[in-house]
Amino acid sequence: MRRYGSAVLLLLVGGAVLRISLFSELYLRYVQAALRPYLVISGSLLILLGLVAAVRGMRQRDHEEHDDHEEHGEHGEEEEGEEAEHDHGHSHSHSHGGPRIAWLLTLPALALLLFPPPALGSYSASREEAQRAAQGVGTFSALPAGKVLDISVAQYSSRAIYDTGHSLKGRTLRMTGFVTHGSNGTWYLTRLLVTCCAADATISKVEIRGDEADGAPQTDSWVTVTGTWIPKGKLGTDGAWPPVLKAARVKQVKEPADPYDKR
């Protein structure tokens, strides 16, 4: 079976990649949507390589069995010669394949296939330092009209910290994210922003205040919060971080298929 180790590993990894990218949207937990075609192509190539490796292993096995049959079918040889040939064949049969411990490499691939890890959440957010958008203080473009404006956590954070035009003032805003907790009962609406993949994720979060914020939801639960902007600190300074929203409504929702934020 050791000769099939590389084939099994390739098939498991390829199957896992296709499972999260071709047959579901789980890949959005790890990379941007634009990378989906590359994942599908990569998974397909791994499957193809695994099948090629399996076929080569089968042909090699048949060839070795044929050689063993010819060796055992010879007559008239001395007993010592037969033993020498047997030892040679025995050592030859064990010279293929790697050490048995190499089979442990299949465990991560099997785990990814059966139990894909969740998207980044509160643990990742708690390890992230307060990171600001790479922009200076200035006037932002006007927000679209509407009674209730849907806005991302990242957009709200940028405008609350940097916008000298105070475009958030007087607007009713609605945002969705997961819950993280601070000290003294403080909780935040949090979202992670990815540029390429989960490895480069950065955090945006908004402190939720008001009567509707009492009784903070459970950590990592997803909520949609509707409310209004509360100015805080001097624009462009650490005192403005994190921005604050006065909640008029907090509604628990399901985790979206794409859990990461947009600028």
Automatic annotation (TrEMBL):
The keyword Transmembrane helix applies. Residues 61-95 are annotated as: Disordered. InterPro entries: DUF1980 (IPR015402), DUF1980_C (IPR048447), DUF1980_N (IPR048493), UPF0703_membrane_permease (IPR052955). Residues 13-128, 159-260 form the DUF1980 domain. The chain crosses the membrane at residues 35-55. Residues 61-75 have a biased composition (Basic and acidic residues). Keywords: Membrane, Transmembrane, Transmembrane helix. It holds the Pfam family DUF1980. The keyword Transmembrane helix applies. This is TIGR03943 family protein. It comes from Streptomyces prunicolor.
